[in-house]
Design goal:
This is HD domain-containing protein. It holds the Pfam family HD. InterPro entries: HD/PDEase_dom (IPR003607), HD_domain (IPR006674). The chain has 9 helices and no strands. 65% of the residues lie in helices and 0% in strands. The structure holds adenosine-5'-diphosphate and nickel (II) ion (NI).
Length: 195
């Protein structure tokens, strides 16, 4: 199988499992992250094949989305072997997706992993980031905002979203983040004013 056919198969693999996802990790999230990762990858001279594969697959084993992370990783590994991808490609992809999620608190070691982590974080800030936060919060039954209870989505901006800008690795992502970060700050200012 040629590389582009392998990528088509990979896209198909996530399409099946993310088609009906409604907490902000839907197929369009994967599309945006992949497009953004490829844009950064071209600027940073990264391995485009690995970067695209990692981007499509980065949420496949997220603990918020699957019951058992280890078996999701195992199923993914079996799938990649069946294509077949080379051992070094499979190892690089699995290693990267094991470190990308913010909740894991890890920094990917490869450039391709760093790029997808950057692209994933860019999708959590700005206008889309705001919409995703309230979608996720709503799906989890959180308060939109609450004066006494910190389990609310506005609090999530202070706990996480406003911090993401300073965790980015590539200069391409850092410059794209500026505008999105400012927009969130303006949003919060307006929100508190209207509240
Ligand atoms: P990661 O995959 O890096 O761990 P998450 O899955 O935590 O990232 O976040 C995915 C999306 O859901 C983001 O847009 C994030 O802002 C939103 N989200 C995650 N946790 C919360 C929360 N407690 N309240 C509101 N939104 C959240
Ligand atoms: Ni993601």
């Amino acid at each position: 199988m040629e590389k582009h056919e392998q990528l088509t198969a990979i896209r198909q693999y996530v399409t099946n499992s993310f088609n009906n996802e409604r907490t902000g990790h839907d197929l369009y999230h994967l599309q945006r992250v992949t497009r953004m990762a490829m844009e950064i990858a071209r600027e940073e001279d990264a391995n485009l094949f690995r970067c695209e594969a990692i981007a499509w697959l980065h949420d496949v084993a997220d603990h918020k989305l699957v019951e058992n992370e280890e078996s999701a990783i195992q199923a993914l590994e079996n799938f990649l072997e069946s294509l077949p991808l080379t051992k070094p490609d499979i190892e690089a992809i699995i290693k990267a997706i094991n470190t990308i999620s913010f909740s894991k608190g890890k920094i990917p070691t490869s450039l391709e992993g760093k790029i997808v982590q950057d692209a994933d974080r860019l999708d959590a800030i700005g206008a889309i980031g705001i919409a995703r936060a309230f979608t996720f919060g709503g799906a989890r039954g959180k308060f939109m905002y609450h004066e006494q209870d910190n389990d609310n989505t506005i609090q999530h901006f202070y706990d996480k979203l406003l911090k993401l800008k300073s965790t980015l690795h590539t200069s391409t992502a850092k410059s794209l983040a500026e505008d999105r970060h400012q927009f969130m700050q303006q949003f919060l200012e307006k929100f508190h004013q209207e509240w």
